[in-house]
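Section 5.1 Outputs to date
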Amino acid sequence: MEGRGTSLVHVGSEADPVTGAVTVPISLATTFAQSSPGIATGASSMNSHGKGFEYGRTNNPTRAAYERALAAAEGGKHGLAFASGMAATVTCTHLLKSGDHVVCIDDVYGGTQRYFRRIAVPTYGITFSFVDFTVPGALEDAVKSNPKTKLVWLETPTNPTLKVSDIAMAASVAHAAGALLVVDNTFMSPYLQRPLSLGADIVMNSCTKYIGGHSDVVGGALITNSDEINTQLRFLQNSLGGVPGPQDCFLALRGLKTLHIRMQRHCENALACALFLESHPAVEKVLYPGLPSHPQYEVAKKQTTGAGGMITFYVKGGINAARKFLESVKLFTCAESLGAVESLAESPAVMTHASVPPEVRAQLGISDSLVRLSVGIENVEDLVADLESALKSASSAQ
């Protein structure tokens, strides 16, 4: 059996059968010749639909190679690529019908919350319960309270407070009710966590983050082991049309090849930064799954092979101190997004989660003093020095 790194480098990137190119070609064609009406002539071995290529929205040789690589990375059978993580989320939601009920982790990405609360509810008549899965019995109670529950949406760790939920437990509860479990695996990436092996039916990734890894491509993915779910999602992917272009697929596939190396460095650097922050007098609290102080530290150890590159912490001194910290960092760029080789820092309350209602932010602990770090792969000594300098500036603003 091939190792994870070997699989990431080679699956989907086999030498081109025509030219021998060792890098997957970027196919810009929007349509493909047919040997007879209705009989496509594309290379079926590169097409996850099991037939030849016909039209660029339906499939594309570069995208097909990338989708095979995505499936292999998650340990799944079928991979589907989308133009963004939200395009993948929207497509997944279309598995439901009006009146269906979804139980969603309460601390979920702001864009996901916005779509669920402000579009899926009023437009499609889907109902949602937002629940803290880390509270014993809370998920089971929410599922049992509504017999129309058809889907459970889990993000672990959550964005931005890094709650870690037991995936196997969530799968058991969902399946007992006849519902599907979808796991947003963006923060861990396929290298550190494989939800399908823990019972998830569908895994979602925002490929803009760790899979792409270089802040130069936007994308999303859905991966499943179910032939039936794959058939449904393929139909929706083609019908809704939120697919990535071949250039985006090429960039994300290139990023995927180094995922294992990058994630190892992200984890090493983040742990060192988290330990530093936890010991600093200007920091009120640090949340990082790799610290024994994290509330779900044991769950994280059980279902992941690393704690990831994301850190959330609270600066003493409120919004003024947090703002001063973000204005003072040099290597940590003050910017949204995450998961790239360069380190980023942001204020969820006024940036990535500004669309979340203030009362919900308060309930989730997304305060003005909260700072989210995406720790990159730079020299860790330089990152710690940058944090120390910025915290010194923040202390003066209290």
